[in-house]
Amino acid sequence: MSHLEAGSGEPVVLLHAFPMAAEMWRPQLEGLAPHWRVIAPPVTYPEPSVDAAADEVAALLDRLGLDRVVLGGLSMGGYVTLAFLRRHRSRVKAVVLADTRAEPDSDEVRRRRTSQQEQVAREGTGPVVAAMLEALPGQHTRAHRPEVLEEIARIMGTVTPGWVTVALEAMKHRPDSTPDLATIDVPVLVAVGEEDTVSPPPVAAAMAQAVPDGTLAVIPRAGHLANLEDPAAFNAALGDFLARTR
Ligand code: MLT
User: Fold this and answer.
1) Which helix (H) or strand (E) holds 70?
2) Is 198 in the pocket of ligand 1 (CB under 6 A)?
């Protein structure tokens, strides 16, 4: 599967959440493209590790002839962004960490992921996708934005059992990136939906504090998929940040 791309100019690479796909960045591909070259690759796992997914992103940059980019990710995409920073730091000009966290999984979360993998093996992706569709969007979106829920469900409907299983395994084994935060020597935007219950605002605020040059943007009335739940507010925060990195 190839990446999505729109616009021209400075490259901005955006990594998607779980269980989502590059298409979740359509509002950013459309909204930022007049000023930026927005690139949304599929997050792929040749091995079940966020490091392997980060190396895939580096290989894409090589193929596109891009030396340094603004790199961002939402939730799982943020885990891969943090892995990329560990492995390919010199290729990152600025960082966007959206609705994500630097901590590894707790034992409880790892156990939940293992039972999700077992469920996928038995029943396919349906039940896991249904649970995530319930858990990720914020209260406001669930009550007032049926068209956004439909779009999220449509994108989640495209994920395959094999990808879900390997992505869950990679997330289970991701290392603690908390000690790395203080060493990120480029500007970092930490964006979070006000109603995100998966990676809530206090987690985002702590990350923004921990990096030397951090900016926190809280997106009102949005949940964990803030870029889709309020594209205008998300794009405004991202656009302002990008303008400062030029
Ligand atoms: C995501 O949105 O990527 C997931 O909620 C991340 C996770 O399960 O930790």
Assistant:
1) strand 69-74
2) yes
Residue type, 67: D
| Residue 241 in tokens | 């940040």
pTM of the predicted model, to two decimals? 0.98
**Ligand 1 centroid – CA 176 distance (Å):** 15
Q: Is 17 a pocket residue for ligand 1 (Cβ < 6 Å)?
A: yes
Q: What is the CA(18)–ligand 1 centre distance, in A?
A: 5
206-225 as b/e: b if 16+ CB within 10 A: bbbebbeebbbbbbebbbbb
Note the pLDDT tens digit of each residue in 67-124: 999 999 999 999 999 999 999 999 999 999 999 999 999 999 999 999 999 999 999 9
CB 38 within 8 A of CB 7: yes
Q: At what angle do helices 126-135 and 146-156 cross, to 10 degrees?
A: 150
- Which ligand 1 atom sits closest to the C-alpha of 99? 2
